């Protein structure tokens, strides 16, 4: 991993009044570019091949310039060119997946957030250790597939948008469907309603929901629309589908906004607080947006089955704000909240506190 001192030396040579917010043209880039522009920053869209034409349809979210690469790995060798443009990188799920978590940690460019979180987030065993040591309730996990005796979700490592995930009921099911070349984890399938909580942790803000250092915000909640899991049972019962060799898949195709019972908000903030405080202890703290992916059971118990320690695509629902972010500041998107944090840090001359 690139050393923080090296990144800060690069940042020291930047024209701080001319910083450009840069990210890969995918995932949540529209709101990142829109939010950056609203906070007074130039924007750079990193793309593979020709600049995507669809940005022309969204002029407020079209980057000021495109930075074209032959493939995403080329970003590593062209880091100096981006640094010359005062580029400050915003990571998102597609960016990290396309470049690879290990390569992203080697990227010689100032990056918003603490990139040390990637080793904890991308390894499912490490992320579970983080969450459980923070006191978070999680679905049961088993190591030996032969022990499967109830519905279990099998997940491959990395941010794949649900691709390849599947549910099994026994070892025979597992053997039929597993790709032995992929690293995986086996987790209890918890019945309940899925809620994806969009948090923002600021280590530099002092007013709000206070932690040992900084403050915590809740800016939105969504639920993912998954294909074909959300529609498959219209054509038959689980037994009939299995007999026909048809199984649910969990590829994320979109998102829906949600509001949760207000009585659960104290617990939601407590969970976010626990996760942030443990991150400070383990690796110096994650910075900025993160998402706790939860199931709420019929007994109103919240179980966290995953963490995404960056901006998630579900926040795209709220480019003009959510019912929660509107109570922080009207029309506040996660993309704009990131840009605002960078602007605050720059104006306070403490950019190194939110950059790695």
TrEMBL record:
Pathway: Purine metabolism; IMP biosynthesis via de novo pathway; 5-formamido-1-(5-phospho-D-ribosyl)imidazole-4-carboxamide from 5-amino-1-(5-phospho-D-ribosyl)imidazole-4-carboxamide (formate route): step 1/1. Pfam families: DUF1246 (PF06849), DUF1297 (PF06973). Transmembrane segments: none annotated. Its EC number is 6.3.4.23. Gene3D superfamilies: 3.40.50.20, ATP-grasp fold, A domain, ATP-grasp fold, B domain. ATP binds at residue 226. Residues 101-333 form the ATP-grasp domain. The keyword Manganese applies. InterPro entries: ATP-grasp, ATP_grasp_subdomain_1, IMP_biosynth_PurP, IMP_biosynth_PurP_C, IMP_biosynth_PurP_N, PreATP-grasp_dom_sf. It comes from the Archaea. It catalyses: 5-amino-1-(5-phospho-beta-D-ribosyl)imidazole-4-carboxamide + formate + ATP = 5-formamido-1-(5-phospho-D-ribosyl)imidazole-4-carboxamide + ADP + phosphate. 5-amino-1-(5-phospho-beta-D-ribosyl)imidazole-4-carboxamide binds at residues 27, 94, 255. Belongs to the phosphohexose mutase family. This is 5-formaminoimidazole-4-carboxamide-1-(beta)-D-ribofuranosyl 5'-monophosphate synthetase. It comes from Candidatus Methanoperedens nitratireducens.
């Amino acid at each position: 991993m690139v050393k923080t001192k090296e990144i800060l030396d690069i940042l020291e040579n930047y024209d701080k009044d001319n910083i450009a917010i840069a990210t890969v043209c995918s995932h949540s880039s529209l709101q990142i570019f829109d939010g950056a522009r609203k906070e007074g920053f130039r924007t750079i869209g990193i793309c593979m091949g020709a600049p995507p034409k669809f940005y022309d349809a969204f002029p407020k979210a079209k980057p000021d310039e495109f930075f074209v690469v032959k493939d995403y790995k080329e970003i590593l060798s062209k880091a100096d060119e981006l640094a010359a443009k005062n580029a400050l990188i915003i990571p998102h799920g597609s960016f990290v997946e396309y470049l690879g978590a290990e390569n992203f940690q080697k990227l010689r460019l100032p990056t918003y957030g603490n990139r040390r979180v990637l080793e904890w987030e991308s390894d499912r065993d490490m992320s579970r250790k983080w969450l459980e040591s923070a006191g978070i309730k999680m679905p049961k996990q088993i190591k030996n597939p032969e022990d499967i005796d109830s519905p279990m979700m099998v997940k491959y490592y990395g941010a794949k948008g649900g691709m390849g995930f599947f549910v099994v009921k026994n070892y025979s099911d597992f053997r039929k469907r597993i790709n032995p070349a992929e690293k995986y984890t086996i987790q209890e399938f918890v019945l309940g309603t899925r809620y994806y909580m969009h948090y923002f942790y600021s280590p530099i803000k002092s007013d709000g929901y206070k932690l040992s250092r900084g403050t915590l915000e809740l800016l939105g909640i969504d639920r993912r629309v998954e294909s074909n899991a959300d529609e498959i049972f219209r054509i038959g019962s689980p037994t009939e589908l299995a007999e026909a060799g048809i199984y649910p898949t969990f590829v994320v195709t979109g998102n829906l906004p949600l509001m949760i019972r207000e009585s659960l908000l104290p617990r939601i903030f407590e969970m976010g607080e626990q996760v942030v405080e443990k991150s400070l202890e383990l690796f110096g703290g994650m910075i900025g947006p993160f998402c706790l992916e939860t199931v709420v059971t019929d007994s109103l118990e919240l179980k966290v089955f995953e963490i995404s320690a960056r901006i998630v695509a579900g926040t795209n629902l709220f480019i003009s704000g959510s019912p929660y972010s509107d109570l922080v500041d009207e029309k506040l998107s996660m993309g704009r909240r990131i840009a605002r944090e960078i602007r605050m840090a720059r104006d306070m001359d403490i950019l190194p506190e939110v950059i790695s």
